[in-house]
Write a structure and sequence with these properties.
alpha+beta; 256 residues; 7 helices; single chain
């Protein structure tokens, strides 16, 4: 197989230049999940070398429907950098991405370290605050088509995120209604319960999965719990606003 560093460099360049590339598994059908996470780490390390700073993690495939669709029984994860954080209420440049989509999320910010096998209570005790959020996902693969190893290698499609106002960690987000509007028209309606039945379960998974590779959730880290609805494609001129029951709203404009 081609050196994993070379594959990581290719995906990093595709993300940096918003250029679609072929699936890795088309050429390397035996690419493993372990290989994919190694490629992800190498690719994101190139961003750090350019001066970006780690700010946390994102979780993916956190709905039962998505797990069944991909034929897996485990969530996936990716890394967040400061360059991926976008200004709430501001603009998102469509040209910065290959084929961007948006999905509503719940975000956690950590109060203390968390790693390994933890309980729901331990996970919640480590949280500083909770916020409504939206994540920009953008597979670098042509036609938004990929297998499991492909998407993991591509930082689990994570490309940007918006955060709303922080709320107390005791805020119950287990089953909050969500309405995502595009140009004033509802396009996705759902509940935070779609995130593994309760978003805190996603944080438990995050602690275990990052711990398995020798990392941990650090104080100040942001963790995106996963999409609460299907992702919606974006085009220049769109205005996106997502309202979260009891948490407020998050919005942004899409420019060319």
């Amino acid at each position: 197989m081609t050196n994993l560093s070379e594959l990581a460099a290719g995906l990093d360049e595709a993300a940096r230049t918003a250029t679609a590339v072929p699936q890795l598994t088309d050429t390397y059908p035996n690419l493993t999940v372990a290989d994919a996470y190694a490629i992800q780490a190498l690719s994101v390390a190139r961003r750090w070398a350019r001066g970006e700073r780690r700010v946390g993690y994102k979780m993916g495939l956190t709905s039962r429907a998505k797990m069944q669709q991909m034929g897996v029984a485990e969530v996936i994860w990716g890394r967040l950098t400061d360059a991926m954080r976008l200004e709430e209420g501001g603009e998102m440049s469509h040209a910065r991405y290959t084929h961007p989509r948006v999905e509503p999320e719940i975000a956690y910010i950590m109060r203390k370290p968390l790693s390994g096998n933890v309980s729901l209570a331990e996970a919640l005790d480590a949280v500083e605050a909770i916020a409504p959020a939206m994540e920009i996902i953008d597979s670098r693969y042509r036609n938004f088509k990929f297998a499991l190893a492909d998407v993991i290698a591509d930082n689990s499609s994570s490309s940007g995120f918006y955060l709303g106002a922080w709320a107390k960690p005791s805020t119950d987000v287990s089953n909050l209604g969500i309405i995502m509007e595009l140009n004033g028209r509802p396009v996705q309606i759902g509940s935070t319960a779609a995130i593994l039945g309760n978003p805190i379960r996603s944080l438990v998974c995050a602690a275990r999965l990052v711990g398995s590779v020798g990392e941990r959730l650090e104080p100040g880290d942001i963790v995106l719990a996963g999409g609460a609805t299907a992702a919606h494609a974006l085009t220049p001129g769109d205005f996106v606003r997502t309202s979260f029951q009891n948490l407020g709203a998050v919005s942004f404009n899409v420019t060319a």
